[in-house]
Amino acid sequence: MAETDPYRNGREEMVEFQIRARGVRDKRVLAAMRKVPRHLFVPKDWERAAYEDRPLPIGEGQTISQPYIVAVMTEQLDLSPEDRVLEIGTGSGYQAAILAELAGTVISIERLPDIADRARQNFARAGVTGVKVVVGDGTEGYPPEAPYDAIIVTAASPTIPEPLVEQLAEGGRLIAPVGPRECQDLVKLVKHESRVETIPLGGVCFVPLIGQFGWRGEEGP
Ligand code: SAM
């Protein structure tokens, strides 16, 4: 059969050399990263760079995250097919498309309406169904569909927004970049009956999470 995806080899190499070689082992995560066509989630001018080992611009000062970081955050969520997942920061929609391969329900909140529209177009182009995109301030979570088995925050805030911890189910996992404006610590929370366990996962650099329980504006908290 004729090869129709010119980026298939690039995607295989991305998984092998950027992701598996750095220690991501979850077979379902690796399969999702092999399957989802990342080049359909970046602006046309950046398409040839889609499988490089770095974040890329998607407009309005926002980015699609580095593939390795997407894989690590997804692996840490430890998803099951029935899980309900909330993503804060839809951006290109790529991370949500990966989540949709692994979980039952994916809701993704984006603050900027134009970015949300583009993500919806990207889902249509890539044939991704089952992601609900909501425009709003994701630092408040999304109470109508709470609680969530997993919450992933893909923009950085000074502290973890409290509404997100409240909307996490028992046994739920939350992953978020937390710390200063430029670069942060990736932090995982696991909610147990009477306490929240905090696990540090290393350094990352994300664009700011702007909202009531994040950074308050372009200039600071
Ligand atoms: N997950 C994205 C992807 O796969 O392309 C990358 C997300 S990008 C690094 C961060 C996104 O978070 C931006 O699109 C930005 O507009 C959005 N954002 C920032 N603050 C937000 C908030 N309070 N609520 C929802 N989205 C927010």
TrEMBL record:
PROSITE patterns from the UniProt entry: PCMT (PS01279)
Residue positions of the active site: S65
Keyword Transferase in record: yes
SUPFAM superfamilies in UniProt: S-adenosyl-L-methionine-dependent methyltransferases
EC number(s) on file: 2.1.1.77
Uppermost EC category: transferase
A GO BP annotation: methylation
Protein name (record): Protein-L-isoaspartate O-methyltransferase
